[in-house]
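Researcher: Go.
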Amino acid sequence: MRADLRRRLSLAAVLTAATLTVTALPAAALTGTAPIGSAEAAAAAPGPIGIGPALTDDAQRGTFKVAAWTDAPRATVAKVSARIRQGDTVLAEIPALAPGNAWDPLTAGRFVLPAEAALRLTEDGGTIPALGTYAIDVTATDSLGNKLTRTDAGRLDFRLRPQFDTFGIGTPAWDDRNARPKGTLLGIQPGSGDAVPLSGRTITVAPTYTTPGSATTVVTDATGAFLGSPMPVNDAYATFEATFSEDSTEVHGSAAEARRVYEVTGRAVKITATADKKRALSGEAVTISGRVTDTAAGQAPLAGQALQVSLGEYTSNTPYGTTVLTDANGRFSVRLIAASGLSDYEEYWQVRTADPFLKYTAVSGRIAVPWESRIDLLSRSLSADGRVSVAGIFRARYTLGTRSVAAAQYVQLEQSADGKTGWRKLAGAQTSDGYWTSFSVAGKGTGGYYRVRHLTSDAYAESSSNVFRLVRTSTRIVGMNAGPEPVRKGAYVTATGTLQHYTSGAWRTFGSGSVALQFQAKGSTTWRQVATGRPAANGKISLRAKANVDGTWRLRYYGDATHFTSPFSWADYVDVR
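Model: Structure:
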């Protein structure tokens, strides 16, 4: 593009563009919102052919696209041509537009002027004399010979498209905490795609996000470059945006670029800190203390430095995050309140400076803040042989899931005489470490009050299940005797005794259930069952079995739904002869 065209259009060119006369299009046609084939989009014509609005391609303003169709049976659109006019003067004849790509929703069903055939200025070898807007006439012909010309089908926006070639804000420093916006504004020429400097344009630069300050303006020089006045930077997230907009005979459109302060020239300091505990329950106070020193000044204390101290990710003005200033000796101390559930992963404390112009290494340390937990029981039972079995789910109190850092947790089964005090451990177990942390725990018990308890770990705080009671009645066999003694080989040995249960504060006879007679041969360690039977109504037992070898005999009651199995009765040795 010639140098004289890189300047703003002359007054004569402006007056010439202002005298362009083009038939007004319906609003929907100008905006491209009317559907293809609608009465508003198509020119009023009796024939079957319809032509939609011609729309400039904003990315390459030397091209455009237009929809054309035919309603004639078994006919297709065979050819679409166009011409570009300025008043009555035809500036360009386009013998054929190319069909759009059927797979591209932006061009499917439309006819386009390809980028390689883009309209250009005369100085670039084209036929368009100057930047501006021009009328587009479109003619469509179908395969049956039907033809329609739509005059002023659209307006070619043959103007520069504004674009920021560069935009930066410099590098703020410890002793100069300002951004200095600078960049270059260009106009992209239609057709050739050349970048033309836009001089004398007013650029607006404004702070965004949390950055304080007001917007300022700056004017581009002859090369399109601009340099704004200093703008204060107060945090590491400071962002500035340059914007430009123009709608003239030469330039049409808007441009915007934003930049964030990613780098500063800082001052090196050292932060040291410690926490007073490694684990804190929810609601418990944690004190974090430390010091800030100036590395460039021989580790001299740095007073009045704002620090962000937190349990977990820093959040201002909360019990678990606050900002504190160092004292004259560069020291600080903060008391924070732990809160469970802040992190699904490992908790930590951290100290970092709130000043973006300090170079430092953040200090942090692990601190366990156990989640509140709960134990939900699914089943519980007390067997006749005195085995207490409990199954349930262990999980966080306020969510159905589990912590990402939590391994299997330890729970223990406990018993108490009154369900309130004197709890003693019967057995322990590990929960599963899956999504549902189920557990099963069992131990020996004689009946009473029970619970399952989780002891505090780094992942979960202490919790207990509901207290529950399991009861069975104790039993025993008294007066056991086996005879005769001695006994002849092959003859019967008869074992007798009385079954009792403990009820109403005393041992009373019990005539129910099943009783077994067991025998252990001399020299053996194995007991085998040799006879079974039921006690009489008065609890009396009499069972017999053949005796073939010397050995020991005993009776056993195996309990029922409400009674314990009896302890082993007295064992009686019988000699066989």
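Model: Residues 1-45 have pLDDT under 50 and may be disordered.
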